[in-house]
Amino acid sequence: MRTTRLLEAAVAVSIVAAVATAPMASAIVPKQVVNIEAAPACSAGKTFCFQPKKPAIGSGTKVVWKNRTSALHTVTRCGGTNCPVSGGTGTDGGLASPAIASGSKYAFVFHGKGTYVYYCSFHGYAVMHGTIR
């Protein structure tokens, strides 16, 4: 019985040591953070827009959208019939936020190369869209 407990203790210490020294996955910590705002004051007389409209980023970049308006917004990748253009050439799936309330944020980490065209599903592509390159 004593040998079994010593063996269990040795295994437990080995597991703790392995976990403590294991390298962290690089996908957990983004290389860069880019902030995009759903803004209330936009050029060309538009009521709403994403600013900056076309940021260029590297793989592993976390993009954070913050709603600085009083209206609800989404970040929704174009596709199907919801936009007059394609969703872009990027391979990452899942770019689709829930409704983002005033003062709230939505974040997404990009890994696939290419372009990602998105829009606000509440206001439509013609009113509010952007592209990640």
Structure report:
The protein is of the alpha+beta class and about 130 residues long. The chain has one domain (about 25-130): Sandwich (Immunoglobulin-like), CATH 2.60.40. It is about 15% helix and about 25% strand. It contains one helix and seven strands. The protein has one helix at about 1-20, and strands at about 30-40, 50, 60-65, 75, 105-110, 115-120, 130. The strands form two sheets. The protein has a four-stranded mixed sheet with strand order 2-1-3-5, with no helix packed on it. It is globular and about 30 Å long.
Brief summary:
By secondary structure, the protein is of the alpha+beta class.
Features:
alpha+beta, Immunoglobulin-like, 4-stranded mixed beta sheet, globular, disordered N terminus
Q: Domains counted in the coordinates: how many?
A: 1
Major sheet characteristics: 4 strands, mixed
What count of helical segments does DSSP give? 1
Order of helices and strands: HEEEEEEE
Name the CATH class: Mainly Beta
CATH fold naming: Immunoglobulin-like
The count of DSSP E runs of length 2 or more, i.e. the number of strands, is 7
Q: What secondary-structure arrangement, pairings included, does this model have?
A:
Layout: H1 2-21, E1 32-39, E2 49-51, E3 61-67, E4 76-77, E5 105-110, E6 116-119, E7 129-132
Parallel strand pairs: 1-3
Antiparallel strand pairs: 1-2, 3-5, 4-6, 6-7
